[in-house]
Structure formats: C-alpha cells, structure tokens
Specification:
424 residues; binds aspartic acid; binds magnesium ion
C-alpha cells in the first residue's frame, strides 16, 4: 500500500462526465489498496471566467485590498470542483471528503495572487485516510496568517499537489493533464516532437522556467527541494487501463543524473513569446549604472530576465534587458520618465516583438560545442541573435519573434531530437 497524490488539471475536470471519469480512475487506485489524496484544478475556463467577472466590476489598477478580493473570487473555482469530485466518488461507492485550502489548512504568506505555501497541516487528512476515505483538497489556494484566502498564481494547483505530497511524504505525485507527458518541445510547433520517458529534475526546472507550460515552475522547485517523485501523465487514457500500465506511462521526473548519461546532449527546446526587450542607449559607463537601471525596475516589482551590457565606446555603453511583455508599458514609462533623466542616458528603445528560444540538457555539462551548434544552426537559417544567456545546462537566445517557429524546428533537427533513439 502506498500513499499517492493525484493532481487533475482543468481540462481533466472540464465537465460532469470528465469528473465522473476522474472519480472512476481514483476509485480504481483506492481499490487497489492505495491511500489517495486528490488535488484538482477548477473546471477548465472557470478561473478565467471568475477573474473576468472581477475585471468587469473593477477594471482599474488593483491595490492590495483589491488583490485580496481577487483571491477570494478565484479560489471558488476549485471549491466547486473538489465538491463535485467528492460527490462523484461517493456515487462510485467510494467514501470521499473534500476540503478547501483553509480547512486543511494550507498556510501561505500574504502575497495575494502569488502566495507561497509555508506549511501544511496533514492531521485531518491523515485521519480521513486512516478511516478509509479518499481526501480531495482544492488546488491553487491557502490561507494567510490573517485568515484571508490566498491563491498561488495561475497554474498553482500543480504546486498545491506537490506540496501536499511533500508534506505527507507521499510515495508519488502523479500530475494528470491533457498531454501525455513532457515533450522535447511543443508538438504544436514541431510535429516530430517526442515524449521523454524521463527528464531530470534540473532539466524540468529549466524547461518550466523557460516557457514549457506543462508544469508550474514552483511545483518543480518544490519537488526538487523535498525530492518528491513526480510523474506527468494523461488523464485521457481509458480510466480502466491497468494500474501497472498507467503507473509507468507519461514522463517521470528523476533525481538521478546518471540515468541520463546515455541520452542526448540536449533534451529539449523551450521557447517563450512573453518577453519584451529594452535597450538603454548611451549610458555613461561608470560604477553603479546597472544598479541604477535595474534597481529602479526591481523597485517597481518588474522582473528582469536576460541582461546584456555592451563594451563601452567613449565612456558610454548600451544596456539591454528583457521583462515580461505585460510589463512593457510600465517599464517603458519608468525608463523614459525616471531612469533616463537620472542617469543621463541618450535614448531608450523598446521592442515587444522578441522571443526567447532555449536548448536544455544535462549533457551540456560534459560536452563542448553545444552552444556553437546552436549558433551555427540559427545562422544557417539567417536568424539574427540579439542576446545570449547561458547556464550550466541551458543556452538561451533572444531573437525576433517572427523567426521563433523556424528556430525551434531547426534546433530540434540539429540536436537530433526528431530521432527515435532519444526516447529516454
Ligand atoms: N485554476 C487555476 C488556474 O487556472 C489553478 C490551476 O489550474 O492550476 O490557474
Ligand atoms: Mg495547469
């Protein structure tokens, strides 16, 4: 008997019929003798609908008091889905009980709309499991020290599930979703993309942070910190397939680097169209300049990703960085109105039409020439690289958005990811 956490995404919970299918699947696991904790998302589209209502009522800029109410509103989507799933399980003859985040409780900080989980009290859940019940806990939410409901950021149910699995020392956390695992890249861009049987935790962390939307990045961070065995798999297989088959399907996130040694140097290509680039032109090249620019940006709570400073000429240099595209206007105003006059830069240029394409692979640690293969491939396609950033296991380039698909396809081919032997 094992303690297993299942997480079901919005599409998997998307209709009464789908919820009944989830209930049948969970009941199958419980009948096989496992203790089951289930963390579902809101039904697909529901969180958007709720936040849309909020926006209709109050379309202006939101202050902290308003953000609190957004969480109050958005958290209800999951409350509905846990109740429905508990009902469906009971209808299957399987005892089940549902809880919202605050009932467990899942304690978080007070950063509304992007709260972090601080602790989970598992007493109540354990008692129910011991009594033979399936326990269903809302994803995406918790309660802050003042007793206000918080949410964990979009896609946060993944993190809820992994956090519950970590707190309860579950044997495995299975993330059921509408794709059947983690792919070498998005199959909508590269039809030849292949599912990976395993991916290392470090690679998954990079893929998630670089734009692969399969898992919320915080869930991967959590899994790494607490070494939660985690698997991404499809909820669209027939619910009654054999447990042994289901339990080995999808993509397993591993903590064993050695397992990857025989594999491809590059495991995946990630891309992200959500960024925008700024260049501060003609900055006086003297100590403190990077801090004056990026300090002001950070103070405005704008996250910076790629940063490049050019070689200086005649005591002046250019300084470029990227931010989330949603922050484009705010960053532009800040740079033009505050930063440029303060530091005596000559000009600001902004470009929202960029994208970031990244190659990721543990094998890059031990192979030279990987980055140059990337650069050669892009140059052969006539794609100009605007910025480059690297870490031990990834290389990212910023390029014009219109070349994104071309770049991803060319790189996928160049690193042999189309080839069948790369199945992990
Ligand atoms: N329902 C939330 C969202 O749509 C959380 C989740 O699905 O993970 O972002
Ligand atoms: Mg999701």
């Amino acid at each position: 008997m094992a303690l297993i956490v299942h997480k079901y995404g919005g599409t998997s919970m998307g209709s009464p019929e789908r919820i009944r299918s989830v209930a049948k699947r969970v009941a199958k696991w419980a009948r096989a003798g496992h203790q089951m904790v289930v963390v579902p998302s809101a039904m697909s589209g529901e969180t958007n609908r709720l936040l849309g209502l909020a926006k209709e009522v109050q379309p202006a800029q939101l202050d902290a008091a308003a953000m609190r109410e957004l969480d109050m509103i958005a958290s209800t989507g999951e409350q509905v889905s846990v109740g429905l799933l508990a009902l469906a399980l009971q209808a299957e003859g399987m005892p089940a009980v549902s809880y919202t985040g605050w009932q467990v409780p899942v304690k978080t900080d007070s950063a509304y709309t992007k709260a972090r989980i601080e602790s989970i009290d598992d007493q109540r859940v354990r008692a129910d499991l011991a009594a033979g019940k399936v326990v269903i806990i809302t994803g995406f939410q918790g309660i802050d020290p003042d007793g206000s409901i918080t949410t964990l950021g979009r896609g946060g149910s993944d993190t809820s599930a992994v956090a519950v699995a970590a707190a309860m020392k579950a044997d495995e956390c299975l993330i059921y979703t509408d794709v059947d695992g983690v792919y070498t890249t998005d199959p909508r861009v590269v039809p030849e993309a292949r599912r990976l049987h395993t991916i290392s935790f470090e690679e998954m962390l990079e893929m998630a942070s670089l734009g692969s939307k399969v898992l919320q990045i915080r869930s991967v961070e959590f899994a790494g910190k607490y070494r939660v065995p985690m698997r991404v798999l499809s909820s669209f297989t027939p619910w009654d397939i054999a447990i042994e088959e289901e339990a080995t399907s999808g993509t397993l996130i591993t903590f064993e680097e050695d397992e990857k040694m025989e594999q491809a140097v590059v495991s995946g290509i990630a891309f992200n169209r959500d960024e925008a680039k700024f260049t501060v032109i003609g900055v006086p090249d003297k100590p403190g300049i990077a801090y004056q620019i990026l300090g002001a940006v950070a103070d405005a709570n704008i996250e910076v990703d790629v940063i490049v400073q050019n070689v200086s000429h005649d005591g002046r240099t250019d300084f470029s960085f990227t931010v989330h595209r949603n922050d484009y206007q705010r960053t532009s105003d800040l740079l033009n109105q505050t930063v440029m006059p303060a530091i005596g830069a000559m000009q600001i240029s902004g470009d929202p039409k960029i994208c970031k394409v990244s190659i990721v692979g543990i094998g890059m640690k031990s192979h030279v020439g990987v980055a140059s293969t990337m650069f050669r491939t892009l140059s052969e396609e006539g794609i100009n690289i605007q910025m480059i950033t690297t870490s031990e296991i990834k290389t990212s380039v910023v390029i014009n958005e219109k070349y994104m698909e071309l770049a991803v396809r060319a790189l996928h081919r160049a690193f042999d990811l189309d080839a069948p032997q790369n199945l992990g």
